[in-house]
Amino acid sequence: MNNKIDQLSADNIRALAISMVEKANSGHPGGSMGGADFMHILYSEYLKYDPTDMNWIFRDRFFMDAGHLSALMYAQYHLLGNYEKTDLENFRQWGSVTPGHPEIDVKRGIENTSGPLGQGHAMGVGAAIAAKFLSARFENLFDHKIYGFITDGGVQEEISQGAGRIAGHLGLNNFIMFYDSNDVQLSSMTDEVTTENTAMKYESWGWKVITIDGHNHTHIRSALNAAHAELERPTLIIGRTIMGKGCVTAEGTMYEGQCELHGKPIGATNANFEKTLQNLGANPEDSFAVYNDVALHYAAILKNKTEESAARKMQISAWEKQNPQLAEKIKQFFNGDLPALDFSTIAQKANAATRDASAAVLGYLAENVENMIVSSADLSNSDKTDGFLKKSSVLQKNNFHGGFLQAGVAELTMAAIANGIALHGGVIPVVATFFVFSDYMKPAIRLAAIQELPVKYVWTHDSFRVGEDGPTHQPIEQEAQIRLLEKIKNHSGDQSLLALRPADAVETSVAWQMALENKKTPTGLILSRQDIKDIPTSGNSRFDEASQAKKGGYLVKSNSNPDITLIANGSEVATLIEAANELEQNFKLNINVASIISEGLFRSQSAEYQESVIPKGALVFGLTAGLPVNLENLVGTKGKVFGLDHFGYSAPASVLDQKFGFTSENARKEILKYLENNNYNLLK
């Protein structure tokens, strides 16, 4: 322990952070200056990882909640050798590896993409759950720590209640969070917006809470030591810090704790950039330099961490030799390898609701996939994730042998936790709620899409046929919103989300197969509450025919020379088949019907295949229980979509079908009207 070098290291981090913001003329310097002491002590003395193997699965993990403090992270990781000097100099610039808010980059130490406050630490809770889940299966081998870093804004975000409640309830003693409490937020002081006692709040959720001087290195060590010794609770370390720690004016007087230091370059405030650099021991002529003594200190730190991780790897290697089957299973889990699964063998009841069909699949997965955590927002008996729960058990404090997380009524928290589970690796997260409440989940869904995480969403009660619960529970615009993410490419160039609305029970089995095999992006399954008539099969195997859904869309009813093609997804497909059969019988028409389970996936197929399903320039009619825009791009400019342009009403589903026109009889009328409007001769 060397107080002088520790202070110098923290000041070097401060100097680097404010230099990044100053050069970019954009960013948040003050909080980075306040958090530098904790970051230095944590990374130099506590956080365990292998500098030569950043993806080492047994590493400790650090989850940043306050993404606006990216300069703090880049400065710290520069001292660790993860970023070059030029990377810091190109902060927030096009093509740089130092974006304004940190984006997942494990090889450089960035474990999660953060920006929207609150989600970062919730992802940390998810990673802690994943570690506990894996430790329960592998003799406590995953005993590493998950660290979080949160600020006043993250504590204020409503998601903090869900994350705090769940972490405390589950006794996640492997989760340690530093709260950088400096009484300042972006546009005001904190006392203008809150008077809560944060310590008491977290204590009431079952956390260990330690309040310290966040600039006192002895206090930081003492708090971290106590957190490591805690066996029953997650720990919140409230570090009382100073916004803009070390700032001075042009006259050399201290200028700290001011609101304006939060979100402006130092040179744009009443502090002076050059004088502040000098106060921190930096050279204003070379402000991106690492101090000589600090460079030597961190070289020793890296050597020590490499040696410590090598020793730990030897211990793990010995365990693997003694437990070869378990060792192989760990590799399979983290590679994302699935066991041999045969979805065609899953027995599906005739004419079942697709939520019930999903329950059958989940029951099968509970018995065959060992590394799944399924969660529901207090709806497991309605979204039918109880199909999994009945063959598993609930995760509990000191007992993570089960696979079901009862999240309670906390859709956003649940979805953010799922992101953290996926980020940790080794575990497949599944989260479920009513489709209308995907609205509550959307910020976490978006971050899953950005981070390219294979989270699985189960959204049931997919239409106005929720019925008596009324417009608040009847999704109308939700499918259109979710499918927008199918139109956005992630940074790997793939569609950022796969949304699947299956047409019947067997297609639901196929949809689940597609979801599990999709390891590159999140997948959403949009499922019905009401029963749906099975799609007729023209061959021996409905499953084989439904497997064509893997192309995003396929013909469920086919003629070689169709007069018209009808398209839909979900329950409306069966309605169109019934209407088509009656039209063919009465008007001698040749009608094709297509199930387009995913427009995004369908549009990724060859033009030839797309045209074989939906002929270009032909008559195309679409039926959707949501907004017409769901299918308008598919039917083309000549096509017609019958959908909804209003919210729902409270009434039985069968009544709403009649009132809204979603019967085969009305579908026939609308199709005939469309044909007549296009001068089609129905008397030929």
What does this structure look like?
GO terms for molecular function: metal ion binding; transketolase activity. Homodimer. By secondary structure, the protein is an alpha/beta fold. The protein has three domains: 3-306, Thiamin diphosphate (ThDP)-binding fold, Pyr/PP domains (Rossmann fold, 3-Layer(aba) Sandwich); 343-526, Rossmann fold, CATH 3.40.50; 545-678, Rossmann fold, CATH 3.40.50. Helices cover 42% and strands 11% of the residues. It contains 25 helices and 16 strands. The chain has a six-stranded parallel beta sheet, with helices on both faces. Strands 1-2-3-5-4 form a five-stranded parallel beta sheet, with helices on both faces. Helix 16 links the parallel strand 8 (428-434) and strand 9 (456-460). Helix 5 runs parallel beside helix 7 (159-170). The longest helix is centred in the middle third of the chain and has 31 residues, at 292-322. The termini are far apart.
